[in-house]
Amino acid sequence: MATSIDKPRSFQEIILRLQSYWAAKGCAIMQPYDMEVGAGTFHPATTLRSLGSKPWAAAYVQPSRRPTDGRYGENPNRLQHYYQYQVLIKPSPPDLQDLYLGSLEAIGIDMEMHDIRFVEDDWESPTLGAWGLGWEVWCDGMEVSQFTYFQQVGGHDCHPVSGELTYGLERLAMYVLGIDHVMDMPYNDPQAPIALKYGDVFRQTEEEYSRHNFDLANTDMLLKHFEEAEAECAALLSASFDDPKTGKRIIPAHPAYDQCIKASHLFNLLDARGVISVTERQAYIGRVRALAKMCADAFVQTEAGGWTPAEATA
Amino acid sequence: MPDLLIELFSEEIPARMQARAAADLKARMTDGLVEAGLTYAGAAAFHTPRRLTLAIEGLLERSPTLREERKGPRVDAPEKAIEGFLRGAGVAKEDLKVQDDKKGQVYVAVIEKPGREAAEIVAEVLGSVINNFPWPKSMRWGSSGLKWVRPLHSILCVLSSEAGTEVVPFEIEGIVAGDTTAGHRFMAPRRFSVTNFEDYAAKLKRAYVVLDAQERADHIWQDATNMAFAAGLEVVEDKGLLSEVAGLVEWPVVLMGEIGSDFLGLPPEVLQTSMKEHQKFFSVRNAKTGRIERFITVANRETADNGATILAGNQKVLAARLSDAKFFWENDLRIAAKGMETWTEQLSNVTFHNKLGSQAARIDRIAALAREIAPQIGADADLAEKAARVAKADLSSEMVYEFPELQGLMGRYYAEAAGLPTEVAAACQDHYSPLGPSDTVPTAPVSVAVALADKLDTLTGFWAIDEKPTGSKDPFALRRAALGVIRLLLVNGLRLELKSTVQTAIVEHYNALQFQILEEIRKDEYTAMHQFGIKSYNQFKEVQSLVSEQLSLASDKQNQQDTFIEKLGQIDLSNFVSDEDDLLSFFHDRLKVHLRDEGIRHDVIDACLAMPGNDDITLLTRRAQALGDFLKTEEGENLVQGFKRANNILSQAEEKDGVSYEFGADKKFAEDPTEEALFDALQAARPQIDAAMKAEDFAASMGAMAALRAPIDAFFEAVQVNSDKEIVRRNRLNLLSTIRSTCLAVADLTKLEG
Prior knowledge:
The complex is a heterodimer.
Chain A: H1 11-24, E1 28-29, H2 44-47, E2 56-65, E3 81-90, H3 96-106, E4 116-120, E5 123-125, E6 130-139, E7 142-153, E8 156-157, E9 163-168, H4 169-177, H5 198-216, H6 219-237, H7 253-272, H8 278-299, H9 309-313
Parallel strand pairs in A: 1-2
Antiparallel strand pairs in A: 2-3, 3-9, 4-6, 5-6, 6-7, 7-8, 7-9
Chain B: E1 3-10, H1 15-35, E2 42-48, E3 51-57, E4 66-74, H2 79-89, E5 97-101, E6 104-113, H3 118-131, E7 152-161, E8 164-167, E9 171-172, E10 175-176, E11 180-182, E12 191-193, H4 197-206, H5 213-230, E13 234-235, H6 239-246, E14 253-258, H7 268-279, E15 282-285, E16 292-299, H8 308-337, H9 341-346, E17 351-353, E18 357-358, H10 359-373, H11 381-390, H12 398-402, H13 409-417, H14 422-430, H15 445-464, H16 478-491, H17 498-517, H18 522-530, H19 537-553, H20 558-569, H21 573-596, H22 602-609, H23 617-631, H24 634-657, H25 673-694, H26 698-706, H27 709-718, H28 726-744
Antiparallel strand pairs in B: 1-3, 1-7, 2-3, 4-6, 5-6, 7-8, 9-10, 11-12, 13-15, 14-16, 15-16, 17-18
């Protein structure tokens, strides 16, 4: 009784289908965060919004950068810049697994023909001071998503708990479209007057960034920027909660968190440049984590983080 | 009597936790029920990825009523005392009985605890079991206050008997217990109700769920072996993988797939590890060639195309994985063919331990130690050193980076590819062994030399930086390393004086540690110290002053040298000695544990530890074995008693007189024939014992000692040691002293218990 499910034809169609699926399920479709991040989790719509008691539901594409994964566009699966699709719902709804499976159907995976499995995989982000329990989801032996119930973010226990879904879009799309090399994947409709493949869009940038990440990036400058971002984050958060100009309580949690994101990406670049030794590595991760914790501490004192004016008098 | 059925239905439980959780559910539920007075006839627990199930048969309908009579104060006791008693017993004054007692008339309260319905007790116990479940890692979800391994969705809890089925009234955090469950996630997701366990198990099977994990495992194994057999192949057995896979599916469907011909040239272990670790596939082997030719995967569902799509997908994922493996293998072989030096060099950038330096520095030490040990155990020193130099090179290989569990094995393949001698290649693979008490012990001399050097370097290193195991904490597996050394020596019957080997290794570590402090001038001076080949503390002292002298002659780097010389002078040699003694006694403790398992008492080992050469594990063990055997004989047991008697009398006299009687007894003062006989026996025994000890023939020395038993017994029977004649008394005490010294030449019998 295999239904002939309507198969998507391109990378972008898969993204569009995920967008409309999760929009239909009530998520706010957000846009990518306008900074360099290593994963969709870094988007404040996930990191910060998973904190505090206010309900939240968001879905978005996030360009993600992993400088060490650059392979000059030659490796069929590895990229230093790729896309993640991220869903975060707080509190995690009881039917989140079913919602997730529905999204796979939406992008053309026929549940009647494939073998979908939830295989234990606990998630931890040492730089964000975050961890959760969940699974990697397998489709016919292939990992297509990460499914996590956040337990702690920025050192804070999550109450209520958010459910997070992360799809590695290129890998998932290659699987659905039956493509062996990422660069050969149709980016837009293959019937379009100007049909573009993933390689047409990204091969050159993969080359350029691989060279940049591994050989050209100025490590002295990166180190300096790292220190600056670190100092700025702390400086922003040391400002008084009360803004003298407006007379309002304005805590710069998001601007400070931008500096934390910046420090994290600079660390990744330094790592790719091979200038961080094994022992230093831990120390850098600890420094970024300290920033993430400060930002989380600040965010939970804002209204979006669940703070109410009643608390001020308490 | 009703039966109880409980099912806790959740999102996917990690495979590795399921069996334990089912057992915990059974133990905690039944313990709780019994404690509340509900006994039962039998219980069984089951687990699938989504459910933990407990079936209890023959449960009491209600807990028995308990009646207790509690004696209170006298009837004429103060009102306050009576009130207190009433409060404590929870009864009213009019319900009290009056009884005659020794004290007079006293109040007695009859407290009756009425039995409770099973359902009420089940609900109470279940609530506490769920709230206190011992998951290795649990989590919260949504806004629920519950903690479970993954979100808990529904609870089935029914009591069933001929009269019918009753849902146990129970609710926890909004989950209300019912009589329904769901089938397979994809093949039969609808919920259905059940009446009892048989009904439950049967309906589940119709809903594509095999409840019993063992049944799933058996089914997988049977289908897998049948499929492989039909193709003229065999499945590589892997019990751990089988039980893991059985925990990942509710409806196992076994599929066999092809491994692309491009990948068949990979070492079978690589294929097997890659398929198992990444994909949880079984390997299918050609028994004739030993090569892995196909794989078995287990899907969780049936499909209209009989799994063709699923198999194709899995095959594709495997091809991508194996392309990586093949890429690593070919790259690695290219480097290996050039002699593996690149890898060894890279290891200088890899930290072994932040205080003990890089892997490369560690390899240098192991190589030197292997060279040192080799001649003592009949191995070729050059080969041993060579083997030690390449044994860990594979740690830099891409394959081992990807699959750390292939370390050693890849080393062997790569050493072979480098054209190194067979002994060297074998040592690459075997030098990590033995890893545990039942692991195979290498026997090839070169492998043994490297294995010993590797373990001794680790032990002495962590001793030098004071990271010894404490209590249950042994993060660097040092106990295992020490046991490894012991087993390597014993299984191969090797004679090694550990003390001097340990001393050499410790000196080496201290030397390296010193130069770490002086990082900036490290290399030159380290080499300077090193070229002297220091092996003992005394040499160390000498070399230290020589090096200081040499360095003070050179005028450049004056300041650095001053610091260097100053630091050298600060090395505290007493640490060396205490480390060495401490490590030796660590070995002795491990040996005691090891020999206890072989039936040798710890006091027997203590008795032998007092003898010279106790750092030679093989010698020590032989001595202990001989003594242990000797003590099991009647002769042995009696001789020890005689020895102890002699020793006691002698010790008391020595304490009392404040002298030690060890100046030799003289036969001419003997008064009794038994005394003379003992003189003769001792005189005859001593050379025999000494000769046997010299020849390390411990059985013979014990035999010679055994010959003393009769004369000693006869002597004590006939003679009073404390004679009135002082000269006779002294002579006899000196005779006892000869008994003591003769016996102590065999072992320190004073250490024996009992």
